[in-house]
Amino acid sequence: MANPTVCVLALGGTIASASDGKGGVLPNLDAATLLAAVPGLDSSGVEVSASTFRSVSSASLTLDDLAQLSDLIAAEAPRHDGIVITQGTDTLEESSFYLDLVTDPAVPLVLTGAMRNPTLAGPDGPANLLAAIQVATNEQARGLGALVVFNDEIHAARSVRKAHTTSTAAFVSPDAGPLGRVSENVVRLHRRLSPAPTIRPVTPTPPANVAVVTTYLGDDGGVLDAIDERYQGLVIAGLGGGHVPGPLLDRIDRLTARMPVVIASRTGAGPILRTTYSFPGSDRDLARRGLISAGSLDPYKSRVLLHLLLASGADRATFADTFEQLS
Ligand code: ASP
Questions:
Q1: Helix, strand, or coil here: 310?
Q2: Helix axes 92-102, 299-311, angle to 10 degrees
């Protein structure tokens, strides 16, 4: 049997960082250097081709970069048994979900990164990259959409969040836990998810700029006045099960009249309520006012989904149905 082949595409981030000569680090290592640091890869029998797609912090990645990356994934997938993306961890939860929604590769697609850069004692990049390659070449990972492999855990792009600023166990799936794990080089998947729908932006792409606004105790709603014609959609990171303070409601009514508005929760876990509270600004009240429920998607994943729905020219009924499907 031929050796499995993997295509590694590097985008920068901590995993690719080296000294800037002034006491800090910068993402300037190329993909080949990342692979050279992985112990045991040469003897693993996996043929790896590597290419550096970007060398940036993940805060500098744009939706346009991800659109170009998805084209590259589509071109590389037929030539390989799996695709691995390395990037900064700060926006990994968003880029993995974007790729989950726009790509439909026949081979596993795995994203990873590192929390400890290569100049520190115990960098986690090589271990994460090896585990990502092991998952990407594993038959069980086919058809699961984009996966995030980190700290020997396998997470669905739909659920994974960065939940710590420094821990090597920063990535969690708060509601359902990881899909599986890698240990002693063996990939074990404990459960499978139904695949996410594929959403393709149309050409020419309609404007699809989506803002995320977090609400808080004592919010007077004034920040919503900044949501003008530059935006075509809004995600509100609401309180608790999806609630907002009363002073926001008139502004929300004006916004829902001209754009899709999604209510998500700022809590970090759990679904948006639908049928419980009826005070002004409650889950029942916001549903009556026409807000779309984010279900279990967090505000940042909701923003990615709403952006793609707008870019695909979807109608309002499709917005709500798709959020429902991914809940
Ligand atoms: N702290 C980040 C990382 O883990 C930096 C970035 O996201 O690029 O890679």
A1: helix
A2: 30
pLDDT tens digits, one per residue of 128-181? 999 999 999 999 999 999 999 999 999 999 999 999 999 999 999 999 999 999
Walk me through the domains of the chain, giving residue ranges and CATH numbers: 5-189 (3.40.50.1170), 210-326 (3.40.50.40)
Among 52, 140, 64, smallest CA distance to 102 is for: 64
Q: For a substitution probing ligand 1, which of 11, 34, 90 has the most ligand atoms within 8 Å of its CB?
A: 90
316 — pLDDT class (breaks 50, 70, 90): confident
Calculate helix-pair angle for 63-76, 92-102, nearest 10 degrees.
50
Helix (H) or strand (E) holding 50: strand 47-56
| Count of beta carbons in the 10 Å neighbourhood of residue 146 | 27
Centre of ligand 1 from the C-alpha of residue 269, in Å = 23
Compute, in angstroms, the gap from residue 113 CA to the centroid of ligand 1.
Answer: 8
Mutate to test the pocket of ligand 1, among 55, 89, 120 (most ligand atoms within 8 A of CB): 89
C-beta of 57 in contact with ligand 1 (< 6 A): yes
**Phi and psi angles of residue 26, each rounded to the nearest 5 degrees, phi first:** -135, 150
Give me the DSSP letters along 95-159: HHHHHHHH---SS-EEEE--SS-TTSSS-SHHHHHHHHHHHHT-GGGTTS-EEEEETTEEEETTT
- Which alpha helices (H) appear in the chain, and where do they start and end? 31-36, 63-76, 92-102, 125-136, 249-256, 283-288, 299-311, 316-325
**Mean pLDDT on 35-45:** 93
Burial class (CB in 10 A: 0-12, 13-18, 19+), 222: exposed
Catalytic residue numbers, as ranges: 14
pLDDT higher at 212 or 105: 212
Residue 107 has what pLDDT? Answer: 95
Ligand 1 in reach of 125 Cβ (< 6 A): no
Give the Å distance between the CA of 169 and the centre of ligand 1. 14
- From the number of C-beta atoms within 10 Å of its C-beta (0-12, 13-18, 19+), residue 11 rates as buried
Q: Please give the Cα distance from 305 to 299 (Å, whole number).
A: 10
